[in-house]
Amino acid sequence: MSDALTELEADVRADLARIAHPHAAWLEPKIGPDGNAALDVLIVGAGQSGIAIGFGLMRSRVSNILVLDKAAEGKEGPWLTYARMPTLRSPKDYTGPDLDIPNLTYQSWHEARFGKESWQALALILREHWAEYLLWLRRTIGLPVANGCELLDIAPASDGLLAARVKHAAGVETLYARKIVLATGQEGMGDWMIPEQLRDLPASVVASVADEIDFEGLRGKRVAVIGAGASAFDNAATALEAGAAEVHLLCRRAQIQLIQPYRWLTFRGFLRHLGDLDDAWRWRFMRKILEMREGFPQATYDRCARHAAFTLHEGAPIEAARQTGGHVELQTPRGVVAADFVICGTGIDMNFAGRGELARFAGNIATWADRYQPPENERSPRLGRFPYLADDYAFTERVPGETPWISDIHLFAIASTMSFGPSGSSINAMTTAVPKLVNGLTRGLFRADVERHWASLGAYDLPQAVVTRPTRTMEPS
Questions:
Q1: CA-CA distance, 96 to 89, in Å (whole number)?
Q2: Residue 6 CA: distances (Å) to CA of 9, 19, 112, 236
Q3: 434 Cβ contact partners less than 8 Å away, ≥ 6 residues apart
Q4: Do the Cβ atoms of 274 and 288 come closer than 8 Å?
Q5: What distance in Å separates the CA atoms of residue 281 and residue 286, rounded to the nearest whole number?
Q6: Taking the CB of residue 41, how many other CB atoms lie within 10 A of it?
Q7: Closest Cα to residue 348, out of 203, 209, 150, 215?
Q8: Strands (DSSP E) along 209-365, which ranges?
Q9: 271, 300, 390, 464: which one has the fewest Cβ atoms less than 10 Å from its Cβ?
């Protein structure tokens, strides 16, 4: 490690010591059915969100926590797996998992790692460097993380605890926790969508943007990419750079989306307070934003357009698909596109029951369609399938009383978007969203222990001072 990084880590420790007030521990561990102390909070997902949530809890003196991730260390999140862009799309000076500690920002890490001149010359953050920074951050703050651990199931346990069944290299074990946070990013509540017209095609010729794809194997082949968001363009560019003979990007819209609504909403009023609005306003804002979809930056388009083998088809939704003579024919209103391989960049649909860890209570998770009926001209079945979350990001019940324990399961993922905006899926929302979630978690933990706190106050008898009263003798009258 460089001297500059060692120095930065010392500065971080000094910063955190200076702002540690109040120091007082305020939680007592509950004992689980196994006789061991249960966790106060179990966080599932050790990507950027899980790190930030764990850090926020530690700063709130909730230290009996554990963060799980099914990936190997360093492979959490998309950055070194299915993210196929050279750099992050967020401006380099956006802060996030640092939670407003200057010495924990990416800028501080980058300057210590590569020098101040490198930071000044930097346009956008390399995704490999972002992944390296996140690992440094979690190690520097001392976050307890267990990699190679997959959550299989969540069930209620005695004394208000939750039982999380977890699979790892040594087998399957049950962890007990008072609260569980699902910081599971893109896939937290559903599946990557393969358009219905393509679902009968063999897996050898169709994939989603999140799948492992052998791009070298596409050299000299014809590739069709369905969708026109940034991830679709990233996959098209990766195929072109690998030497694909033709790459066709099929956009269902008559004109491709060029506006990026996520740039508009990056101000503290929206990020902090969208969740405080009534359902009608939340629905109105998020329907507008999500139906626009995310735009793509100039560099993402140029990465494709510089190749003569690239063709953009607008107004070309898939009407039908068939496999013929070793290739796929995609029927669109603008004609047939022939391809040897199809990549789907059509997003994620909500499918609670398809997630094993949710299966026990998937049928009783309230959705927006259960809680709010928009005017006819604002209806959207797709958005109605998003979970309707409480103000602390907890699941709410479709039928009250059937699964009351799910109020201790909190969702901080892309599926939180309809309730709170881009809070669980964007770097730019972390500095407002993570404190809101952490406040909700600590509020629940405090309320659950309120009788113990009341008894503790009644028993509190520690004097602050010693008063010495001089002995006086009575003089005879």
A1: 14
A2: 5, 21, 9, 41
A3: 49, 52, 53, 56, 97, 99, 412
A4: no
A5: 9
A6: 26
A7: 209
A8: 222-226, 246-250, 310-313, 320-324, 327-332, 335-339, 341-344, 348-350
A9: 464
- Give pLDDT, residue 191: 82
Instruction: Give mean pLDDT, residues 299-328.
Output: 94
d(CA 164, CA 93): 37
Q: Cis (ω within 30 of 0) for the bond into 22?
A: yes
- Angle at alpha carbon of residue 266, lines to 261 and 269, rounded to 5°: 120
Strand 222-226 to strand 246-250: parallel, antiparallel, or no bridges (unpaired)?
parallel
**What mean pLDDT do residues 237-256 have?**
96
Q: How many residues does the chain have?
A: 477
Alpha-carbon distances of 178 from 144, 226, 239, 453, rounded to whole Å: 17, 43, 46, 17
* Mean pLDDT along residues 273-293: 93
Count of other CB atoms within 10 angstroms of residue 122: 17
pLDDT by residue (tens digit) across 375-417?
999 999 999 999 999 999 999 999 999 999 999 999 999 999 9
Question: 395 pairs with which residues across the strands?
Answer: 389
Q: Distance (Å, rounded) from C-alpha 454 to C-alpha 126? A: 51
* Residue labelled with tokens 């926020």: 56
3-state secondary structure of 41: strand
